[in-house]
Amino acid sequence: MADDAHAGDGEFVSNDIARASSVRSRPLPLRDATVGQGFWGDEQELVRTQVLPFQWCALNDNVPGAAPSYCMHNFRAAAAQNRRRTAARSQGDRFVPPVYTDRGFNVLPDDPERPDPDRFYGFVFQDTDFSKWIEAVGYSLAHHPDAELEARADAAIDIVCAAQQENGYLDTYYILNGMDRHFTNLKDHHELYCMGHLIEGAVAYYEGTGKTRLLHAAQGFADYVASVFGTEPGRLRGYPGHEIAEMALVRLYEVTNERRYLDLAAYFVDERGRAPLYFEVEDRTRAKREGATYVPNDNQPMPYAYYQAHEPVVDQREAVGHAVRAGYLYSGVADVARLTENERLADTVRALWRNIVDRKLYVTGGVGATAFGEAYSYDYDLPNDLAYSETCAAIALVFFARRMLELEPKSEYADVMELALYNTVLAGMAMDGKSFFYVNPLEVRTEAVRSHDARFLHIKDVRQKWFGCACCPPNLARLVESVQEYAYTLADDGGTLFTHLYIDGMAVVHVLSKDEDDEDVALRLEVESGLPWNGHVRAVVHVDEGDGGADDYGDGHDGKISVPFIFAFRLPAWAGDQIEVAACTTVPAEAQGRVNRRVRDGYLYLAGTWRDGDVFEFDFPMPVMMLEANLRVSEDAGKVAFVRGPVVYCAEECDNGSRLHCLHVDAARVGERAENVTVEPFDFKAGAEALDGKGTGGVEPVSRCMVRLRVPAWRDEVRDAKPLYSRWHPPVRRRVEAVLIPYFAWANRGENEMRVFLDIS
After folding, report:
1. Where do the Non-reducing end beta-L-arabinofuranosidase-like GH127 C-terminal domain residues begin and end (predicted)?
2. pTM score
């Protein structure tokens, strides 16, 4: 990668930057990165004030018209069963636990109005709705204390912990249906997935509040799992059917420093896909026990590819199977590779990353093209109107991208992370925070949605209040509330702060003193960002002196403390050539003589000595880009999509009329002069009446400042009386302006058509 010239002869030499650009990094502690005002501050406030209370009602089945969750119902039932066991023992009576009966993957009450208080209902993974909610609550409380919310969370934790078994096991599906068969269907019954989400929620709540009750419960579950699984004689050599335990165990290791959790994560990664395939053995054993015929799992490219268990992880080079599972697995593999310095695993995730972003990534940052298995399809198969592109899959891609950044600071990972965040992830939630998309197509025709055609059953043209399988809403909430953890990472040696996302807020780094008797010095980077609507970013360095540590660094000529450090700022790909973009960065004149600068792998490294009040200013170009897909993507031949900065744009019927397939971009005029596309700030007004008594499609009135595009276009004149087929004649067209809005904002004004890729004339 080419380097730009040094801007000064600071204390740091080029070797320091070369070393910084090859180090591994980690997120800042939860309280050391904050979100201020601006775009993401608004999103977090929406989650905090609207989404979290709404989702708590949903977890308790108190949202009229929404599908019941049964999540907290199940925890209460399991806790009540524990109390009955304890009471029986205290009275010398024998407690008879439930004997396992397979009640299916999704259990519903015979009478929805009167569910049995002692029975399990919902999906086998229903417990995770709580875990993701409590994770979002933990992040929120870290920066916005709320006594009422914390009390509600503590009460919920009491219920959950009361359901835990004496050996540490905590999964209400088997607790209520019969523990005699637990861990006999790892492939489908999600016990280790539930453990993973419990760990993630517990860690976040501990970091946000300092409270340990849920953390200890999660440790108890993890310790029990560690005693059951492994390569030692008598242990199960299984691994999760739905991955997330791998990355969760790494988080548990990092917060407790207990090596056994990292070892368990590494075992799950290493054992997966090795012969004999554990899931095949499990399937054969279960079929024999139930007197059924074993049916091979061959409905994917390879047996068990849906579960990413078709071959050893270290040998995998293509993203296959269920897209959410895949993203969680790849995230965990990257974690294990980083912490165990396993270069073979690092090469694996690099190859998987390349396969995704080069051949299987939607322009909106979505992944998982096919509804069949909610899965990755074959290379370049990226349909627009049939796209699955699950919200959770985009969230998993964000997780994966950040972990790749922790492995190696290359801006392409942050580019994709940002793309997914601003587009598919945010599209998953209405602007009032009270309805959600599970899937995120790039083209919607209302007649297709209403037709009940089996091909389109997964497609919705308005968001839903809740889902029986409600993985996406709380997943989205936990990501938005923790977005600051994706904006920065700190080099393992503590000497470089990487800025990956430009978000209003603050990052704090504690620079170690050279003298153990002195206190550390805190460097605070205060960021003001115009993203995603303009490319102006201002970053101010603040130096907070300790009682003794300040003298360790010496004074500048003006009496200010000078602290040696490296700041690395991402140069977004959408802004253009890296060297040219780096030239748009302004460092104050008084700092020029003590700062070196270099561009490497898409980051601008500024190395030198820093003083309180030093300011960087970035003016990233934000041109409107008209993108075409690789010609191997047959769906997009002859079409273009519009992107400005990190935001992908789309056309909606309410701005452009129906039959969006008759709208053609005037590509020649767009390409002729940038001024031919109007970039227009405007006040987007969301709001829609519900389509039914369940509140489907209803959006409360909300206004947000956004940017829309006005693009030169043509529209075909449609003659309804024309026969189905007729001799070709030149089309009759009239000149129009296509109005494009951010993709994440679509479907906030009622049901209507939408398109991302538009035909060109």
Report:
1. 624-758
2. 0.95
